[in-house]
Design brief:
It is built from 11 helices and 20 strands. By secondary structure, the protein is of the alpha+beta class. The chain has a single domain (4-429), classed as Anthranilate synthase (4-Layer Sandwich), CATH 3.60.120. It has a 20-stranded antiparallel sheet that branches.
């Protein structure tokens, strides 16, 4: 189906971003992806907005990737949406039986009627069908949209921990016993914080979270009553032609006000043997995952244990790549590498089984992925971390945080790392 396009000169300011998000709320499906001007050799766009489903696919885990493959192959168009962590059950013989307060669909993609591709100085609008002057009229309406100041919540929010601190420490000890026995050598262990009966303004919450964090993979996703407000610093996987890259994060350090102290914390993270060991383990896991779909001999490590600095934290990130055959279907690449190694552990299947047994909440979209497919079959997906999740129908809001447990882990230190990662989300919800 033909798309009609038009380009406008702009300056992509914070005000324009807010106008775009407020204008988009008239639609049931909204995907806003923002790089926050992080420069990267692997960036395709500064930001993307997609709204208003022409077609959509929403399914549980049963044959989910097969359905997505058929949908993507049939449409050959822009598709935006989300993959839940629990799609592990479609990839392996696994199950998810923990508490689920959000009820987010396991897989939800939509073919938008309207797509906006942004650089810092222009926007190109791609519309599936248009009436006369629709592109001009929409752009004029967006520019005329009044920027509204709104409270994030009408009432104070009280957060509850799904897992108490004592219970968390006990569960980490159990995880360490599994490592000592040789069942696994690393696993990502997470905990949920939640609140019920909350009237949240998703746009206001996202803008505040994004302002605090300014990450390279920020996402505002609205799928009917479900919202994901993400300040993710992590890319799961990207396809550009025959080139594939994945950028797992393992290793976190706090920021400091003093430049000298901040530089010392960065150097300490870079040289920390535990953090480097975690990162290298997951880098090896990702190399193994990519080798399942790569052309022989093309898997490589572009960056190993490189330190990146964000507003809230320093992160240790590795970049792994490969080449794939032009004949391999895009969805097959995702299925063969899913879920991402940074949110599971190694060996991956054993880690996922232990995670399911020890965690108290079903992850759902948390530690899943949000992203898009292009009409040519390229794609780009983040990892859903540092994210506020909200079900507007049930008025349930939550966020989850976690970290890698290895033989060198100290339970109390792991708990404090979780609180560090939770800082921005707590600051937004408890302001």
């Amino acid at each position: 189906m033909k798309r009609y396009s038009k380009t406008f000169s702009i300056i992509l300011t914070d005000t324009l971003k807010q106008q775009l998000l407020q204008w988009a709320q008239q639609f049931d499906e909204v995907s806003w992806l923002d790089s926050n001007t992080h420069d990267s050799a692997h960036s395709s766009h500064t930001a993307i907005l997609a709204v208003d489903a022409f077609t959509a696919l929403k399914t549980d885990t049963f044959r989910a990737f097969e359905k997505l493959d058929e949908y993507q192959t049939t449409t050959k168009d822009w598709l935006f949406g989300s993959l839940s962590y629990d799609l592990k059950n479609d990839v392996e013989q696994l199950s998810s039986k923990n508490t689920d307060g959000l009820g987010v669909p396991e897989l939800y993609f939509f073919q938008p009627k309207k797509v906006f591709l942004f650089s810092q100085t222009q926007v190109t609008m791609h519309y599936l069908s248009v009436v006369e002057d629709e592109l001009d009229a929409d752009w004029s309406t967006i520019l005329a949209t009044q920027v509204l100041e709104a409270a994030i919540s009408r009432e104070p929010i009280t957060l509850s921990a799904r897992t108490s601190k004592d219970n968390y420490l006990e569960k980490v000890h159990k995880m360490l016993q599994h490592i000592k026995r040789g069942d696994i050598y690393e696993a990502n262990f997470c905990q949920e914080f939640f609140s019920e009966d909350v009237e949240l303004d998703p746009v206001a919450a996202f803008l505040k979270l994004n302002d605090l964090s300014k990450p390279p993979f920020a996402t505002f996703l609205k799928l009917e009553q479900h919202y994901v407000l993400s300040a993710s610093p992590e890319r799961y996987i990207k396809k550009d032609g025959i080139q594939i890259i994945s950028q797992p994060i393992k290793g976190t350090a706090k920021r400091a006000v003093s430049k000298l102290e901040d530089a010392a914390l960065m150097l300490q993270l870079e040289q920390d043997p535990k953090e480097r060991s975690e990162n290298i383990m997951i880098t090896d896991l990702v190399r193994n995952d990519l080798s399942r779909i790569a052309e022989k001999g093309t898997v490589y490590v572009e960056e190993l244990c490189k330190i990146y600095t964000f507003e809230q934290v320093h992160q240790m990130i590795s970049t792994i790549g490969c080449e794939v055959s032009a004949l391999i279907h895009p969805v097959e690449i995702i299925k063969k590498t899913y879920p991402m190694g940074s949110m599971t552990g190694a060996p991956k299947v054993s880690a996922m089984k232990i995670i399911e047994k020890l965690e108290d909440a079903r992850r759902g979209i948390y530690s899943g992925a949000i992203g898009y497919f292009t009409p040519s079959g390229d794609f780009d997906f983040n990892v859903v971390i540092r994210s506020i999740l909200y079900n507007a129908a049930s008025q349930y809001v939550s966020f989850s945080v976690g970290g890698a447990i290895t033989a060198k882990s100290i339970p109390e230190a792991e708990y404090q790392e979780c609180l560090l990662k939770a800082k921005a989300m707590r600051q937004v919800l408890l302001q």
